[in-house]
Amino acid sequence: MTRAQNDTGDGYVDPAIPNPNGPDDAPIIIYGYTPTLALSILAIVLYALALALHSARLYRHRRWAFSILCLLTTVCEIVGYVFRLRSSPPPVGDPYNVLNFVIQYFFIVVAPVFFSAAIYTTLTSLIAALGQHMSPLGLSRRKIIWIFVTSDVLATITQVTGAALIGTAESDSKSPDTGNNILLAGLCVQVFSFLVFLVLLAMFLRRSRKATTSTGEGGLMRFSGALVVCSLLVYLRTIFRMAETAEGVGGYASSHEAFFGALEFAPIVVAILVLGWWHPGKWVPTTRPSTGTD
Known about the structure:
This protein is mainly α. It has eight helices and two strands. The chain is 69% helix and 1% strand. The chain has a two-stranded antiparallel ribbon. Strand 1 (5-6) and strand 2 (9-10) form a beta hairpin. The N and C termini lie far apart (56 Å).
C-alpha cells in the first residue's frame, strides 16, 4: 500500500478504490490501509468456533461468570470483525466509511475487557480452590475483581472516546492529535493495570506451587500455566496497542495491517481458544478448603 496526499490534508487514500463520498465517508481511509477481506473472514470463523466451544463448556461445567464473559468476548469480536469486513474493498465494503471504523474499533477494543475479566475471575477461582491464605497481598477475591474490572472499564471508555474523536476529526479534515492523546492515556492506564495483575498472579503462583505439588494436583498447575500464557498474550496485545498509538495517527504500526493481524487479532483468538480447551470448569475444583475466608 502506498500513502497519498489529497486536497484535504495528509492521509491514506487507496488509488485503486475511489471514494464514494457518502454521508459517512471520510476523505481518507482512517485505518491507514485498506482492511483485507481474508483477515476479517478468518476472524469471524475462528471466533464463531470459540463461541461454540465456550457454549459447550458452559453447558457441561456451569461456570457461569467465566463462560458468560468469554461468550461476550467472542460475540463482541464477531460483531467488530463484521463491521471491519464492511470496511474491506468493494463490492463487499467501503474502507472510507467512518461509522464502520468506529463500530469495529469499539467492539474489538471492548472484547478483550470481557476476556480480561474472565482471567481475573479465574484467579479468584484458584484462590477459592486453594484457600484465601494463598491470595496475593491478602486481597479478597471481591477486591481483586473490583480493582481490575473498574480500571479496565475506565481505560476502555477513555480509549473509545479517543477513537471516536479521531474518527470525527478525520472526517472533518481536522487534526486527530487530541483524540489520539486521549486514546493513548487510556491504553497507558490499561497497560499499567494489567502489569499489576500479572505481578499479583506471579505472587499467587509462587505461593500455590508448594501446595499443589504436595497435594499432587498437577492438573491444577498445568492449568495455571495455560492461564499465564493467556494473560501474557492479552498483555502483548495491550502493549502493541499502546506502542501503535504512541506513534500517532498514520504511524508505521498503525498503517500496516500485518501488525494488527499478528498483535491484535492473533493473541486474543489464541487465548480465548486456549481457555476454551483448558477450561477452569474442568481443571479448577469448586470445593473450597476450610483455610482462610473472604
